[in-house]
Amino acid sequence: MKELKHRFSSGFFIVLALALLISGSSNTSLVNAVRGQITDFFVPILSVASRPLQAVDDLIGWTQQVAIVFSENQRLLAENAQLKQARITSSQLAIDNQRLKRLLNVGEGQVNIIAAARVVSDSDSPFFKSVLINRGTDDGVLKGRAVINEDGIVGRIINAGSSSSRVLLATDINSHIPIKLASSGINMILEGDNSPYPKLGFLPIGEEISVGDLILTSGYGMVFPPDLPVGQVLEITEEGIKIKLSAKLYNLNYVSIMGYEIIRSPVSRPVSRMGDRSSKGRE
Q: Do 95 and 71 fall within a single domain?
């Protein structure tokens, strides 16, 4: 009996499927309508069923964002603490520096721009690197003054007339400028060799220097004030260390003449006791 029912149900569904296929092939509009109604019925159900999954995805994304923000916050807090410590150290060093200067009577450097000048000609010689500017003694320009532009050092005045002056460029073979390594403060000399890239001289034995290191003026020699940009280490070979200057000396238009001097406070001399006694005896 059960086997007969099973055969009957199977036959029924087979006949129903064939009927749907025949009706679908003969009346596509009916099939499309039924299909649209079925789709309309199941879309809201699928939409409701997908909401928990979307909520879980949103929760996971929000958790990841919170973790990233927390990590970034921790990094910024650590960096802020380091900057505060560096500021405290810098302030203490500045105070100690001022105390030592007062103790040793070391004056502060005074820097002033004497005049701005235009480059009117250059030497155009492979053996002498210099330029002529349109400012002279009438404008306060004196021999030995430093010459710079907006990028860095240019050279120094070697001859000053009343209305013009000649500038010896930093690349000239007769140019020797006291410099230092910005990272460590090692003092050296920038030596011109008539090439576009002067050499670095008097590097202490055992000191390390790398390509790309920044070079600044040291302030020694009383021509250039300290910490002016000079250039960067370009090449390190057995023949020497070449420096690429910050200022483009091959394309100079305008320069500035700079004055630099150290102002020292007068030293008060204590009156000797012998002098006091002699003055008392005269009275």
A: yes
Considering the domain architecture, whether residues 119 and 92 belong to the same structural domain is answered as no
Nearest to 144 by CA among 167, 123, 163: 167
Query: Averaged over 270-279, what is the pLDDT?
Result: 49
Contact between 257 and 113 (Cβ < 8 Å): yes
- In this structure, the answer to whether residues 63 and 167 fall within a common structural domain is no
Q: Which residue has the tokens 């810098």?
A: 90
Which residue do the tokens 């003055």 mark? 279
Mean pLDDT of 208-221: 93
Domain assignment of residue 272, yes or no = no
The residue behind tokens 């995805």 is 57
Tell me the three state secondary structure of residue 146.
strand
User: Both 55 and 175 in a single domain?
Assistant: no
Q: What is the pLDDT of residue 144?
A: 95
Residues 36 and 121 in one domain: no
**218 residue type, one letter:** S
DSSP 46-71: HHHHHHHHHHHHHHHHHHHHHHHHHH
Tell me: the pLDDT tens digits for 150-208? 999 999 999 999 999 999 999 999 999 999 999 889 999 999 999 999 999 998 888 88
**The pLDDT value given to residue 127:** 87
Q: Helix (H, G, I), strand (E, B), or coil: what is residue 164?
A: coil
Give CA 24 to chain center in angstroms: 75
Number of domains into which the chain is organized: 2
In a domain, 229, yes or no: yes
| Contact call for residues 141 and 257 (beta carbons, < 8 A) | yes
